[in-house]
Amino acid sequence: MTMFARRLAGHLARGLVMVLVVTTVSFFVIRSVPGDPMAARYEKLVEQGMSPTAAQRAVEVLYGFAPTGSLWQQYVDYMSGLLRLDLGQSLMVPGVGVSTVLFSAAKWTVLPVLAGTLLSFLIGVVMGVYAAIRRSGRLGDVLAISGSLLHGVPQYVLALLLGAVFTTLIPILPTSGTADIMFEPGFNAGYIGSLIEYATLPVLTYALASYGGWILAMKSSVVTVLGDDFILAAELRGIKRGIVFRYVARNAILPLFTILALSLGMLFGGAIFIERIFNYPGLGLMLIDGINNRDYALMGGAFLLITVAIVVANIVADLFYSVIDPRVRSGEGAR
Amino acid sequence: MTAPVIAAGGGRAALRRNFWRGVWRVLKRKPSRMVGMVIVLGFAFMGVFGPMFYPDPLPRDTAALYAPPSWEHPFGTDFEGTDVLALLVTGSRYVLLTALVTAVITVVVGAAIGLFAGFRRGRWDTVLMRITDMKLTIPGLPLLLVLSTIWKFTSALEMGLVLGLLGWGGVARAVRSQTLSLRERGFIEAARGLGLSTTHIIGRELLPSMAPFVAMNMLIAVTGAVYAQVGLFFLGVLPFEANNWGVMLNLAVFGGGAMSSPAALPYLMAPLLAILLLTLGIVLVVDAMDEIFNPRLREE
User: Torsion over CA of B72, B76, B80 and B82, rounded to 10 degrees?
Assistant: First the structure.
């Protein structure tokens, strides 16, 4: 147990350093962006005949704050705000904190990503086992090539193809948004049905995009385990094929859990394309909107949240693996 | 594309001839691999010579906006009546040039860092790998999006440089672990025992044994670069200065409404099919290379 605690502490320390570096870099990168919407607003008001102090006040009221002091002072303010989970004010949605905007967007990223990934994991793992057992036959070839192709094609190509087929050619699925505005949001059948209908294309794209990776990973994992001594021993002892198969599957799936945790983190970054294409208001769309509107606070916040998701996924993956695979716990074998 | 890397590492002429004979044999065994080679070479040809077949400002046919596919316009026309196939061909140069620059930088930087860290070990290794881990953790696409607000990526070279500098992490890690296992082998020990210089050992002994692996990573980096830049243009965060596939996708979806009306659909499909075909070609070639370089995979 102390071993586990020490591991956890080390990971947390490294993760914190990572987050610190990312926030610092994004703070300075974002501050150097040309084209400041608040300054533009201020100048416009002055041009319209407002006195400089009045214009300054008007901008502050509109956006809730004004960046004051040196860059260093702003940095210290930003970092201390971060400790209180205060990411500043959004310019796009005046008067609302960035953290509020982001947390309400996060659910539209987390749920579809989770659903799509788990779906593809289940199907991909089963298909991967077939691809490994039949690897010299036609079925194995087809599965492996389809896996490589789906793994190779970028998400946005899949999203655009699915969109073109199901919204343009055979218009049976909605193109944008999260639910039909006809229904009252809440726990009622109509709204939930509509939620599922609108989430179908994003979830299907996530699932298809990651499915190829699962097939390939499971196939190579099963092939490795098939060559292990204990499988040969089991076969020589005349144990039933079904049971041998259970041995194989159980050992082969272990490394995949690590990839599962990692890919969940990574998908937050990849969700950008899918959210943009299906106009699904998650974190990725927030990031793009923030960039297009030069909304520093929102940009920084969305980028930070995506990074934190990946860092957390890394930590979870490593710890989880040491829990389920006793071989890792004993030594430095994990590296 | 792989040839220079391999030839530079190959050394003796006879070895090289044998190698090419092996390549030919592996290609011949499965027709799918030939197809892959043909596709990849076809794209290279299109990028180099394609734009020469078209006049510089492409002709517009204002009478036929979003024309359906026909013999004259196999993929129809765009919102200005320009032939979509012509746009696709002329746009390929930017896409493929960026991909090439990215792949070269990714592989050179990644292999250099991986080799150095793996060979030196110790403190240098720790520091370099910490940096690599950090790079691998920072989400690439969101970072590119944020960076696109200050950089404008005006030329293909500039774009390739940025993508390459962001992408070497994976190669560095993979090369390092290869180096770690190779450096314990007999022939490296022997070279060290002979008192050969580190540069000689890395350049003449380690690199050639790793060349195939590096070449494969380079091909994969090409696809990664194509996706990343087409994606950036598609999202519309970069200014549309050049004509390329990403701009086409963006205009088809957000300008032409290809997700709701079928008029702009051929305009959307042309770049999509190009990307799919390129992916297929590279996947098939990588599959063949896997067999050339991993003799254990060969089923005789």
Answer: -50
Contact criterion met (CB < 8 Å) for B276 and A291: no
Distance CA A221, CA A137 (A): 18
Which three-class secondary structure state does DSSP give residue A97? strand
**Residue B194 burial class via C-beta count within 10 angstroms: exposed 0-12, middle 13-18, buried 19 and up:** exposed
What's the number of CA atoms in the CB half-sphere (13 Å) around residue B212? 15
Asked if B278 has any chain A CB less than 8 Å from its own CB, the reply is no
- Give the angle A7-A9-A10 at the CA atoms, nearest 5°: 65
Nearest CB to A288 within list B237, B259, B275 = B237
Contact yes or no for A152/B225 (Cβ under 8 A): no
Per the CB < 8 Å rule, is B265 touching A277? no
ipTM attached to this prediction: 0.77
pLDDT 10s per residue in chain A (335 long)? 577 778 788 888 888 888 888 788 777 776 666 556 667 667 777 777 777 777 777 666 555 555 566 777 777 877 887 777 777 777 777 667 778 888 888 888 888 888 888 899 999 888 888 888 777 778 888 888 888 888 888 888 888 888 888 877 777 777 777 666 666 666 677 777 777 777 788 888 888 888 888 888 888 888 888 777 777 787 788 777 777 777 787 788 877 887 787 777 777 766 788 888 888 888 888 888 888 877 777 888 888 888 888 888 888 877 777 777 666 554 444 33
Among A36, A136, A148, the residue to mutate for chain B (most B Cβ within 10 A): A148
Maximum distance among all Cα pairs of chain B, rounded to whole angstroms: 77
CA–CA separation, B163 and B153 (whole Å): 10
Contact criterion met (CB < 8 Å) for B231 and A145: no
A156 and A273 in contact (C-beta within 8 Å)? yes
Distance between CA A60 and CA A42 in Å, rounded? 10
Report whether B119 contacts B197 (CB < 8 A): no
Asked whether B49 and B42 are in contact (CB, 8 A), the reply is no
d(CA B112, CA B118): 10
Residue with tokens 């990971």: A11
Q: A201 vs chain B: nearest CA distance in angstroms?
A: 12
| Distances from the Cα of A113 to the Cα of A206, A218, B286, angstroms | 7, 20, 29
- Which residue type does A237 have? R
pTM of the predicted protein model: 0.78
CA distance B26 to B22: 6
Residue A307 is nearest to which of B139, B231, B265, comparing CB atoms?
A: B139
Tokens 């994606």 identify what position?
B231
Instruction: Yes or no: say if B299 and A136 are a contact pair by the CB < 8 Å rule.
Output: yes
Are A89 and A63 contacting, i.e. CB atoms less than 8 angstroms apart?
A: yes
Residues 6+ apart with CB under 8 A from B289: B2, B212, B215, B216, B219
Residues B108 and B167 sit within 8 Å (Cβ to Cβ): no
